[in-house]
């Protein structure tokens, strides 16, 4: 298992190699087979890593709140929608989602997400390695290797599966 304090350095060392591997997969991997491999490796590594002890994604990324969740999230925090937006969110939504103002995420209190069960789906599903169409999202997966130890592990294991050197 990778220690979170070593992850960023390890990922930087592998960055060029990971982009070459991304290109290799684009030319050699069957998209459906790759999705199955990602899902299997996702299950394997998330059984080993405890997200609640890491929270690096909360620390290194901004959160995103869909417009449709504003009312629910504001009610959960017992504030008005305008107070919620003013305190936590950037002014303008992009694709009907608001980014949090800051990084670490404004909803991360240093231990957990203050939105509790109202946590956005994008956060619940991060790093999305168990979703379909992974070949099309390899840019974001390579970027996530410096944030999530599971992503780093998945990429390294896929290199072995594909005999990538």
Describe the structure.
The chain is mainly α. Helices cover 53% and strands 4% of the residues. It contains 8 helices and 2 strands. The chain has a two-stranded antiparallel sheet with strand order 1-2. Helix 1 (4-28) packs antiparallel against helix 7. The chain is elongated, with a radius of gyration of 17 Å. The protein starts with a helix and ends with a helix.
Summed over residues and divided by their number, the pLDDT gives a mean of 96
Distance between the termini: 21 Å
Q: Judging from the principal axes of the Cα atoms, what is the shape?
A: elongated
Report on the biggest sheet.
Answer: 2 strands, antiparallel
Oligomer: single chain
Helix content: 40-55%
**Tally the helices: what do you get?**
8
Order of helices and strands: HHHEHHEHHH
Strand content: under 5%
Q: In angstroms, what is the radius of gyration?
A: 17 Å
**Residue windows where pLDDT falls under 50 for at least 5 positions:** none
Would you report the number of β strands?
A: 2
Strand order of the largest sheet: 1-2
Structural class, please? mainly alpha
Q: How is this structure best summarized?
A:
This protein has helices at 4-28, 31-48, 56-60, 70-76, 81-88, 121-124, 138-144, 149-161, and strands at residues 64-66, 97-99.
Task: Give the secondary structure arrangement, pairings included.
Elements: H1 4-28, H2 31-48, H3 56-60, E1 64-66, H4 70-76, H5 81-88, E2 97-99, H6 121-124, H7 138-144, H8 149-161
Helix pairs in contact: 1-7, 1-8, 2-8, 4-5
């Amino acid at each position: 298992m990778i220690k979170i304090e070593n992850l960023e350095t390890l990922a930087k060392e592998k960055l060029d190699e990971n982009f070459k591997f991304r290109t290799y997969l684009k030319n050699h991997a069957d998209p459906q087979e790759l999705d199955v491999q990602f899902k299997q490796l996702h299950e394997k590594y998330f059984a080993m890593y405890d997200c609640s002890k890491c929270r690096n994604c909360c620390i290194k990324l901004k959160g995103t709140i869909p417009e449709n969740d504003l009312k629910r999230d504001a009610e959960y925090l017992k504030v008005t929608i305008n107070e919620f937006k003013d305190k936590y969110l950037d002014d303008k939504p992009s694709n009907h989602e608001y980014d949090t103002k800051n990084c670490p995420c404004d909803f991360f209190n240093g231990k957990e997400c203050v939105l509790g069960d109202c946590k956005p789906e994008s956060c619940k599903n991060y790093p999305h390695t168990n979703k379909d169409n992974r070949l099309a999202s390899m840019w974001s997966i390579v970027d996530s290797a410096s944030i999530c130890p599971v992503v780093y592990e998945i990429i390294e294991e896929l290199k072995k599966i594909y005999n990538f050197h």
